[in-house]
């Protein structure tokens, strides 16, 4: 067994690998860029080596620096995590030449499966079902259009060396094919230094289901069940679960056996994932094989009881798999939510900056329902989300003996997950898992687009839940006033009186309440009902209120706003004020501040790089016309005109670094 390994990665996956290595008694070496000098994975490792400037092309993607770090520290093996160098055959070859073990598959398997075009040919030869398409290299957008006509719309345009949702476009007509070919090629060139793309039939009503395989160097290979990854946005997975609520035992077995056949065809070893697209009739087609650990591997670990990182390390050290296919048992249900630094209400634009508060839910077993909470993260309070890397903050995983319990545990854990300082998608994740359609398991890769056709603007809470939140607001305000009334130095006979009558003001609506102190909390009379609000030792200033309202367990995040409270629960965010009746009357008279008219400006919707400006001063533009392209975290975003107009001024040059809402173009 290895005595020391180096993790050639950063963020949550580096921390994840360190945890297993520590449990196995293996020392770890972290590598870090200038931007990550204070990162959590650097703090957790036994040793850390600086490898270059912030851009990954000058640090995490420089194989020579990784290898030198191994030689300098005596690391015997490298775990690549996912992304960066994890699927680079040349890196694996260089490690082998330096006498350093690669904790992953060998060069042949990486090369064979890393090229999506070649991998589909190999899959077909191995008897694996494949999607109809054109696997040759496409020269230009006109050839792409001709191929799309031959296959029939809709089609999927994909980068051959792609991954992580980058270099992928769905096209429904010739115009989208031309644009998609160009954007996919550009993203592929930027992210993977390989601009080749291919085209295949886009399956409607599709599910994205993948099979986890594990193999050793002795020809043993098993599949560890499936993961449902259909909840996606822009082809990037958002929520994953295991097992799939859609598959039956026969389909699971058929998919698993085909995945194993493909792995054995390339003499695969280590952990790998074979991804399939599955239609509404459970017909399945090979998409690709990822020759690395997947982001969503924890859900498989939760239902199998296996540590995939440990198995990878043991296989790389020359050990045989300790289990056969008959030993694989799937127990319970697990969900994973990817917590990103992004702004869901602004079309999911990335958010960067310092994390001023980071309080994940407590890990471990739940109350008495058999649930378990797990958090994989690379962030700590005071850490920074950089523009140079993926915006993932954490992965929140919940387990239950059944799907309903796992979903309920996820909803509660999301309510308790506190992040401030950067935008995040926790409210969006909560809205997804709370939706009726998700609970019923009616999932496709179009789920998000269909459920939120006009984008995400926050969740509208059911009336009974909103009423409970109003009661909580009244209770916490009464608790704060009660504490304020105990201030020292009050004149004898002039002690402050705590009133019981208040008005909870939410938006423009006033809700009169009567709040009565009782043991363990308050009784709140609101309208024609009285709600029993019982808090678990909450004190003013604490950011999380937990307790019950009429017996319903609630976790509510509370931010003070000076004259009120901002409450977060169940995917919704509401702002309230708790006022006296007289103050509420005055508040109702206050005018609503109008937003400034910015219709004559093209603003950058995110922090990023201005890649191109497609117009000049004096140009006449039409609604829908492309104006500029902004790249953020290696994803290209085309900005278009919302109305006809004339360009008055170009306010930012190509190559500029843009801030959110920075003016790019001004119109007359």
From TrEMBL:
Alphabetical list of InterPro entries matching this protein: ATP-grasp, BC-like_N, Biotin_BS, Biotin_carboxylase_complex, Biotin_carboxylation_dom, Biotin_COase_C, Biotin_lipoyl, CPAse_ATP-bd
Domain Lipoyl-binding intervals: 593-668
Matching PROSITE patterns: ATP_GRASP, BC, BIOTIN, BIOTINYL_LIPOYL, CPSASE_1, CPSASE_2
UniProt domain ATP-grasp: residue ranges: 120-317
GO MF term set: ATP binding; metal ion binding; propionyl-CoA carboxylase activity
Cofactors: biotin
The protein, known as: propionyl-CoA carboxylase
Organism of origin: Nitrospirillum iridis
